[in-house]
Amino acid sequence: MTRHALALGVSPGDGGTLAPSLWGPYRPGTEVTVTAWPKPGYTFERWVLDGKESSWPHAPERTVTMDKARTLTAKFIKADCRTTPQGSLGARWQQLGGDRGRLKCALGDAGKTVKGGLY
Question: Structure pTM?
């Protein structure tokens, strides 16, 4: 029976880690959800699937249907703790990385404090 591989990558290499919902190789049609976890000092930016950037770049989870061999890369960017998050409380929480289980800008990070009304 045919099985497909899912190659996972992060950019930059020290920007974060990825966690697939299950490990392959995968049977055709299997849906795999991959979660991106930024390391401290980084935030998730977008997905690149098979060389094409995602049209919805900010969701840290991506489900991939394994209908062929695929390559999925999570792009991370350096967090700017001096930028004030915008929007509702929930939006500010998401911008700071709280929805992903880690705040990208901890209090006291390099002598800076988090702005935006969360603390």
Answer: 0.69
Strand segments, DSSP code E, in the chain are: 6-11, 16-20, 30-38, 42-49, 52-53, 61-66, 70-78
Predicted confidence at residue 4, as pLDDT, reads 97
Q: Which two tokens stand for residue 77?
A: 């960017």
Question: Domain 6-78 belongs to what topology?
Answer: Immunoglobulin-like (2.60.40)
| Start-end of CATH 2.60.40 domains in the chain | 6-78
**pLDDT higher for 94 or 118?**
94
Confidence of residue 17 (pLDDT cuts 50, 70, 90): very high
